[in-house]
Amino acid sequence: FFPPPPPPASSWDAAYERELQTFQDIGDTGEIWFGEESMVRIIRWLEKHKVPLDSSVLDIGTGNGVLLVELAKSGYMNLTGIDYSPSAIQLSEKVREKEGMSNIKLKVEDFLAPSAELSGFDICIDKGTFDAISLDPSDAVRKRKVYVGSLCRVLKPEGFFLITSCNWTKEELLNEFREGFEILEELPTPKFCFGGRIGNSVTALVFQKK
Q1: What tens digit of pLDDT does each residue of 153-185 get?
Q2: pLDDT tens sequence across 110-167
Q3: Domain limits at 140?
Q4: Cα–Cα nearest to 52, from 140, 160, 141
């Protein structure tokens, strides 16, 4: 599975407005970013490490909220999703209602300027949001640093950060998150072969806040 690079942040709203209309028309939740195996990979890691079901989980850039629904189905009870796009939060609210998952909290939030109440999470999950910020044509280097600072603020000490990326290698992500985080594990992802060289189309890492 080869995911396309995420669009720049400016086009997210329009994309989610289309997906919201599609969901209202035919009940289709839209694209699952990085495919279903990316959600399975995250949930398996949480289960393998016996992460308590009452742990507070933040989904950064929740989009259609499907990952939170799958976490809720797996028994996780303290779930929050944020997205800077109001259309995305509207869509995820409708998906939540359809699935009957009333314990999922959803909020319009810009992770680069999080509200004070967004804090104290045991686990933060990112599937493609850091990628999208990295592609922003305006001041991407500064925004990546701001993202790391926001992550430090919202995640508890020794909390876990699970990131899935198609833009960054393991080494690049280690460098981006070197301040305040240490790598715990690299999760297996699909591999591809091109010109006789084998590489990963997707990188999935687990960090722990120092």
Answers
A1: 999 999 999 999 988 999 999 999 999 999 999
A2: 999 999 999 999 999 999 999 989 887 888 999 999 999 999 999 999 999 999 998 8
A3: 33-162
A4: 160
**pTM score, whole prediction:** 0.83
The Cα–Cα gap between 60 and 128 comes to: 9
DSSP E strands: which ranges in the chain?
56-60, 78-83, 104-108, 121-127, 155-165, 181-187, 191-194, 197-200, 203-209
* Collapsed DSSP state (helix, strand, coil) of residue 187: strand
Identify the residue whose tokens are 């399975």. 40
Let me know: does 130 contact 147? Beta carbons within 8 Å.
yes
Is residue 141 in a domain?
Answer: yes
Least confident stretch, 14-23, 24-33, 78-87? 24-33
Which H or E run includes 32?
none
Q: Tell me how far the alpha carbon of residue 89 is from its chain's centroid.
A: 14
Residue 184, in any domain of the structure = no
Query: For residue 24, which of 76, 91, 114, 70 has the smallest C-alpha distance?
Result: 91
> What whole-number distance in Å separates Cα of residue 140 and Cα of residue 144?
6
**Three-state secondary-structure class, residue 195:** coil
Strand partners, 204: 164, 187
How confident is the model over 38-52, as pLDDT tens digits? 899 999 999 999 999
The residue with tokens 């999950």 is: 125
CATH number at residue 109: 3.40.50.150
